[in-house]
Design goal:
The structure holds three protein chains of three kinds. By secondary structure, chain A is α/β, with parallel strands linked by helices. Chain A has a domain of 88 residues. Chain A is 28% helix and 22% strand. Chain A is built from ten helices and twelve strands. An eight-stranded mixed sheet of chain A has the order 6-7-8-3-9-10-12-11, sandwiched between helices. A four-stranded antiparallel sheet of chain A has the order 2-1-4-5. The N terminus of chain A is likely disordered. In chain B, the strands form two sheets. Chain B has an eight-stranded mixed sheet. A four-stranded antiparallel sheet of chain B has the order 2-1-4-5. In chain B, 29% of the residues lie in helices and 24% in strands. By secondary structure, chain B is an alpha/beta fold. Chain C is an all-alpha fold. Chain C folds into two domains: 30 residues; 258 residues, Orthogonal Bundle (MetI-like fold), CATH 1.10.3720.10. In chain C, α2 packs across α3 and α10 packs antiparallel against α11. The chains are: A alpha/beta, B alpha/beta, C mainly alpha. Chains in contact: A-B, A-C. At the A-B interface, α6, α7 and α9 of A face α8, α9, α10 and α11 of B.
Amino acid sequence: MAENKPTQTEVVSEQPLMRLENINMVFKKSNGLLTDKHIHVLKNINLDIKQGEIIALVGESGCGKTTLGRIITGLLQPTSGNIYLDGTKVTGTFKKKITSYNQVQFIQQDSYAALNPVRTIYDSLYAPIKTHNRKWSRAQIDEKIEELMSLIGLQPSSQFLTKYPHQLSGGQRQRILMARAISLDPKLIVADEPVSMIDVSLRLSLLNLMKKLNEQLNMSFVYISHDLSTTRYIAQNGRVAVMYLGEIAELGNIGDVVHQPRHPYTRALIQAVPIPDPDFASYDELPLKSMNLGSLENRTDGCCFYDRCLYSTDECKISVEYQDTPTARVLCRNLGCVPNQPIYKQKQK
Amino acid sequence: MNENIIEFRNVSIDYPLRKYTIRAVTDVTLGIKRGKITALVGESGSGKTTLSSSIIQCISEPGKIASGDIVFFDNVDGEDKEIVVSKFKEKEMKPFRWKRVSMVFQAAQSALNPVMTVEQQFVETLLAHGEDKDKQKQRARCKELLEYVKLDAERVLSSYPHELSGGMKQRVMIAFSLLLNPDLIILDEPTTALDVITQSYIFNLLKQINREKNISMILMTHDISVVAKFADYVGVMYGGRLVEYGKVNDIFRKRRHPYTEGLINATPSIIGDIDKLKPIEGSPPDLMNLPKGCIFSPRCPYAQEVCVGEEPSEICLEDGSKGRCYFFKERDNGRK
Amino acid sequence: MVKVKNFFILVGKRLREFFIGVGKTCKKVFSNPKTIAGFSILMVFVFIALFGELIFPYNADTDVANKYLDPSWEHPFGTDWLGRDVFRQVIAGTSSVLEIAFFSAIFTVVIGTVLGIVSGFVGGWVDKIIMGITNIFLSIPSFPVYLLLAAIITIDTPVTLALMISIWSWAGLCRAIRVQVMSLKERDFIQICAVMRMSKAHIIFKELLPNVFSYIVINFVMAMRNAIMASVGIMLVGLAAYDPTNWGAIINAARTKGLINAKNIAILMYPLVAIVIFQAAMLMLANGLDETLNPRLKVM
């Protein structure tokens, strides 16, 4: 299974692995007897995910990144829009048994909740493999489990397979989740904040494992997080989509976006991230008009960042569109007025 | 006035369970500087929350101080007084708690009473501490505090906790901790559940409080980036021991203790060289099954024979830093 | 031939694993003093139910000359108004009591669990229909219905009585199981089953059921308890007197004979105490099981 694919993650085919076209997600909440509130969680999302790339979805709580992740895995059906997998339209086919949607797997944030507390690790790993390989014998499945355990670095496997989830540490459980996800040989894995509940000193080894899986098995990863620091580490050569209130504010290569953010929100975000170096401590006010997040209800066609933006004009209230800059694709019509110098002087690879 | 406001003297805290006892904090001697912000950094199981909540005797059951003293330096009528707060009975602790030392808890959601409005909770605390019974004065004080933390006082005072966002609740908690003008505020991971932009606002606010009102602060966190931005002094805790303490610049430049070095090298950042990052090998210590000698030795890349023999005692240097490592004095990883 | 041999080896291996698993659970479950106490007493009753009549055969012949004898070695509980040995009556009645308890609990648990899981898992209009039926059963008080049914149906076997009792007691369990299934459905580890394309059967039997299993076990014990209470109540009113040695029947008979006679009260006490001991044992067992099995459930 773990054939050594070339470490270059060059795109082999022109076609993206997954294409999201005009995805909209609206939740209805009843507002009194007769009316409904429309909560527009995702608005006009267009995104291509290439084979073998790591792409990050970054944003704060309420920006819709988790919802988008669930739409990508198929757990949630978008209100409108289309999803293409390897060129085939797969919107709405999630519930059907035979579908190429099998190729997308999911790693959840809370490793404890993601494992059945009354079944052993072995059972949890055995079941999905058996479901997809009915003809395999017990011995064959055991062999595959052994392979997976060595891939994720939990050896000797017998020590872990007989245990229940509550007997393992958070980091070990997270590795089991990864093993389970890759056991079905997916092409794309969505990881929802996989390291946020892990101790700081252990995060790097988990992220390294994900990097290794991406390189060795050429699996694409969608890394969802609110933490730009770990995002930069894992999506080193990949792209990042900075999300705000359900829209992609900025999409570009992570190194570029972090070094020279163009969207006013991204600029505020980068300035707000604390840096583990006392030389960089600053207490300047963030370039934002207010602290409060906008509302997801009653969305207009105008820019959703309008009320917090220091550089907004009246036209921004009415409409907004994407502009392409050398570093990123930015959802802002007023880029000329937004400062564009790098936030921190040093640019790193 | 003594330069310290609180001093831990050889404090050990135990959790006696049915079959065995877990020592959550072992022999910590630490001085919290008056008027400054001291951060306690450590991961899960390091004992930092246990240590700081012991100041106001708020350790979660069944923890209790096994040995050592916690001393509060008071200044009464120009005279310095040492008060041993660890020996306080509940009666003596009452006027001390919240009036001299208050605390901002980790999950603001659970610290606020869900069936009382914000104003009711503030007033309840004021009354409990025998403050002004005058309603007008109470209201004015509440308003003043909420405005200080940049909240819309009118709206927030009459709201219930579930009507406020996470960031707003945390600011209410900060205002709450300022209610009785304490000398020291303990902050337990004040921004864990909040997003980066709100976090930035909260820390700027706390820094402002520290500067303007000269209130000392102890900050507990596992995030050293926050420490770099915010603290003046840093204490690093591991497995219940204080493994390093010093000024924030020294900690980040010199990284004398191997755990400090490992922690800083394992923390990704949005700038800086990615290739220089390295995880710390091994796993956090099992408090029920500690290794012989220095408890960091199984994970330490510099461990030697002497490290697995006996646990190192604290070595203090002239500049005020100290740490638990046999090679503390020699190590000086000076950054470029 | 080799294939057959391999098959048996496999079966043997699986059985061995299964029993080891069972053994480990038993060890954990029986480390609780309440469970041990309750279970032991239950086993005593079971023993009496199975073998009691062999050791102490009951002779229903009347022997009026020996009526109302005081307790002695020969008649540990004395004799009743017809000269019959009360002790042996109680022993003989044990099997009837336990039968009612056991069958009623099985019916209750099976009906309640199946409907609860279907209702919670499938949702939609199936859920609404089942909940509607459950609500009917829950809002009409059970005892009057028992009386009504008892008047219509002739109750001549313990199984009939058990069935009748369980018809009104499955509703509560159904509700509770439904709620648990609904909340489990939203948990991460069930959601991932959808992403991994596991079959519905797998989700229900291998993922959901083990999580509600301990709840079902505890409810089984409580259902046995409730069945006893209901049956005693029915017999007390005289509606199901098919077996005069059933404890409820003894109590009823003593009561109708007139409680002014102290001897009748004494006769009444023996089966009553037996019921109390049985109920207390079941409660202890349920509590003990709850303590050991629930912490894992509670970690939600």
